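Changelog note: in this version the structure field was regenerated for every chain. One regenerated record is shown below for reference.
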Amino acid sequence: MITKECLNFLKQLSKNNNREWFDTHKETFKEHQLATKKVFESVKEGMLAHDLIETLKMFRIYRDVRFSKDKTPFKDFFSASMNRSGAALRGSYYLHLKPGESFLAVGFWDPNKEDLLRIRKEIEMDATDFHDFLEAPKFKSTWGDFSGESLKTAPKGFDKTHPDIALLRRKNYVFVKSLTDTDILHKDFVSDTIDAFNHARPFLNLMSDVLTTDLNGSSLI
């Protein structure tokens, strides 16, 4: 389980985001980092019963400040991603633990231009499958609607009067589920996270089918 002590440490780090404070509390950080990684690994183990997960990556606490105006050296959160296995299974799962701002995410953040065009072409041709999962009760109650930015107008080469223009204008195809600190500290956090990710798997499977076939349905892999 994630502990109150872990969240309190992250709060303290946010208030004291400097190398002197961090060096003084580095052993405490390592303890919380290890405990959190075990929780993330428990989520991965649970997911393996339902999906093929290739890797779990827990992200470093150190920020890359080279091109940022914010020069604070450390992240004040723990996070990890799980990538699906094999060329046929696209998409990933993401966990973000920060006091008061925790969330889960699934999908395709900032897809490359080839993938983005392929997704849009699929929607342009027939978005029925997209609407089916968006309206599925379990999916909708867990994940709601897409998150992230959209273009202000139609993408180049697409009709701005298309009935699914809202889907076509999306820059990312990502869903985000916000979590409270109570959610994070609950004894069922791991199992609840696994359930939430499982409800999103039809979306990842649909996108995998789209991104591994051409518009005629022929396999690209």
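Spot check on this record: Strands lie at 53-58, 78-84, 92-97, 102-108, 173-179. The chain has a mean pLDDT of 95.
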